[in-house]
Design goal:
Length: 202
């Protein structure tokens, strides 16, 4: 049976900064699912620059049924100053729509932007705190709507802060190596989610 895998969200979900399409998070996780024995039909509707307020439009663009969805969003909510309350509400609504359509949903909330190069060292603690606030609201909204939230942000932030090679040339988006690290962190919760869905269906 084919596993219909949806990727939605922002430039991280789209793969901005990756050297090739094979290096994007969606492609890497598709291979992880295939390696676990699944026949996978991926669909990517993510849009670079998207905020949580754009998720409803992405959900409307989905063609056909979805078994499992990966939703990555939050960085642009911070850079474009979308209020955490509005961002979390929009995220929760998108998750609810996907769940009502029958999809299991894994949410990757906002990354810790304090590790990017353009943040002055004196402001990194402030930026980390703002990211934590949005991530907390996202987590509550997503879990209430029935999603699983990937608890990977703190560890990934430490790894990215320690290794500039994980960033692409723009020093904001991940490089191919960065996407490999992110996909490695997300593969276990995604595979667990698919396994739980399969068990429930059986």
């Amino acid at each position: 049976m084919t596993l219909r895998f949806l990727v939605l969200g922002d430039s991280l979900a789209f793969g901005t900064g990756a050297a090739t399409a094979r290096d994007t998070i969606g492609a890497r996780l598709t291979r992880s699912l295939q390696g676990a024995g699944h026949d996978v039909d991926p669909q990517v509707v993510a849009v670079p620059g998207a905020t949580s307020l754009d998720l409803a439009a992405q959900v409307r663009r989905v063609t056909g049924p979805v078994d499992v969805a990966l939703l990555v969003v939050g960085a642009n909510d911070l850079t474009r100053q979308v209020s955490p309350v509005r961002a979390a509400a929009a995220l929760g609504a998108a998750v609810q729509d996907l769940r009502e359509a029958g999809a299991a949903v894994l949410v990757v909330p906002t990354p810790d932007l304090s590790s990017v190069a353009w943040v002055p060292p004196a402001l990194r603690a402030v930026v980390a705190g703002i990211c934590d606030l949005l991530r907390t609201r996202q987590t509550v909204a997503a879990e209430r709507a029935g999603a699983v939230v990937a608890p990977v942000a703190p560890e990934l932030a430490r790894r990215f802060a320690a290794d500039p090679a994980l960033f692409s040339a723009d020093r904001f988006h991940p490089s191919s190596a960065g996407y490999a690290l992110v996909a490695e962190a997300l593969a276990p919760p995604l595979l667990r989610l698919v396994a739980e869905r399969t068990d429930a269906a059986a």
